Sequence to fold (762 residues):
Amino acid sequence: MQSEDARYLKRKVKGGSLDVHPTEKALVVQYEVEATILGETGDEMLGDRKKCQKIIRLKSLNTNTDVAALARKVVEECKLIHPSKLSEVEQLLFYLQNRKKASGKEKRVVKPRDLTPFEGMEIDEEANINKVEEYVELLYEGMEEKVKGATLILHLARNPVNLEELLENETALGALARVLREDWKQSVELATTIIYVFFCFSSFSQFHGLVTHYKIGALCMNVMEHELKRYDLWQDELQKKTRTYILHFRLWVWVNDPDNQALRKEHEKAFKKYQGLLVKQEQLLRVALYLLLNLAEDTRTELKMRNKNIVHMLVKTLDRENEELLVLVVSFLKKLSIFLENKNDMAEVDTVERLSRLVPCEHEDLLNITLRLLLNLSFDTGLRIKMVQVGLLPKLTSLLGDENHKQMAMCILYHISVDDRFKSMFAYTDCIPQLMKMLFEHGEERIDAELISFCINLAANKKNAQLICEGNGLKMLMKRALKLKDPLLMKMIRNISQHDGPPKHLFIDYVGDLAAQITPDENEEYVIECLGTLANLTIADLDWELVLKEYNLVPYFKDRLKPGSAEDDLILEVVIMIGTVSMDDSCAAMLAKSGIIPAIIELLNAQQEDDEFVCQIVYVFYQMVFHQATREVIIKETQAPAYLIDLMHDKNAEIRKVCDNTLDIIAEYDEEWGRKTQREKFRWHNSQWLEMVESRQMEEGEPFMYGEDGEMDRPDLFYSTDGITPASGAVSPDFFSDPYAQNGDGQHGYDRETNFNIPKHY
Fold:
């Protein structure tokens, strides 16, 4: 019989598209099955088509798999894939091979749970779409009938199939809106039910116009404001009764009060009533908030909500214990927080303080959405400070061990670590051991950007750097960085090397390894970090001359000092490195003989507008003038002192400071340059004094320093009890060098170069 039936069934399979599985290591094959029933004569009697898919799981696929061979095997074994699609299969497998495995729980978007039937929604009668008119009639009766009619309509609205028909019934929707507007204060059940009906419409964007037309959003805002005030009143009343009960109970310990039992029962009854009211109120708030959240898809509607103080109302609701309500409230705040104005509103109230109690919590969705909100808020400096003040730092650190939440927690902690004030606080948590464990668990895979960025920030603090180096910490980091040539990991190591003390001396063992990385063939970003690490090693016992010779670094330095030979960041690191090795006498002499000083001066000409370049180049001169061999070269064979004199009065204070110190050393060994430096300092100081005098004259409206009779006006500032006092450089040096200027005893003024003291630093 089966074989006879089979003769009349024709089945045809048609191949379709290929794609990768969104979460698993698998291919998804789409295909179509066409089944046709044939009559006895072979004619088609009945046909049907069905779209299907087949999932090909690739458990053996890993980083070492031969993708081409695997693609051929898949095409051979799966008849749904045509051989012409071999190259496409190979491309998809290559994508799967390199796709980073992500935790589904971390990546999923947390949404408030759909509203479920609540207490009071149960009804014996089955709702019928054909009886809507009867249900509308009930809305004109007493309160009990209104609740019944609204509940029956709600049962219909919860089925999306009925929404189109209800939409056309303007009488029913108008009656619901009117009853809600007039009677929402009279019955929480009625208000909750009617808002729930409109919530069903708000779940679909095409019906938002309907909800807006009946002004349900504005009504929900009024309902929220009213219910929050009622909640405050309930809290006050309950606290009063609790205080009365506690006081009475304490007195009863000494005085046996026969009414104590009755008072206890009254307190318990009041508390139960409060709990019942609270449950109903939170049902109402949840429905109203969910409706508002749906309407807030339109940013114009969201702005209207903000103008009605939605942020403050939501933050106030964070005190509740109902976890489903809290998920909704925090979700709403998260949505609002992406706009600056809303974030500022949250900063004005104690949002972070109220959120801190939710971290951690047992409700997974609530914790996840809370962390996401905190991440949005952590972009604000003031709110980051509050996060630290309310004790979120150790709480977030504890979540680093939770696979579901560590990514969000790490992002927030990264933002906190940006502020230098808080870096040291991480040393008093178990954060650093956890991060080091994560780093070493990555194997040869690239480290997550969030993780390595966080580590780089923490390594900038001395205490943290010491913790990182504990045990074999630095050894493991160096081994991994040198093997993978990871510039970000090397940047972390560079930050560790900048701290004086034990961490810096640990690097002596790795000087050779780092110097070996400085070659033209290496990645520039990686070389920059290696150079920066070496430049930080200002260790007295380090033989830099041996390092430069063994790894042939001087020619590399000369090549990189040429303007345009590499990226500015790399050239700058070379200059800093030269400054470090120039502390060594023999190194400085070797660099001077190699002709590197003229190259540095040429670079100074090319980069004279860049303060960082100028400061570091001047520092190189400062280091070299300490040594006799290089001092003679700089003073006698180059124009470096002339450049330093020009830079004495640079706008940058650090450049001025290094220039002054360098010129002071040069002046001690070369009288000619010493006199030139002194004259330039005097000229600059004199011009500054004249500018000051002229500005005062303009302010006071006195064009001349002489009175109408031609006599000099000598203010008291120029005198003391002993006569003329050239104090603090406040008097013009020209006054003292003028042969006609006399002091109180009739003697001529002093020579300006012997009596006017030029300070070394300004």
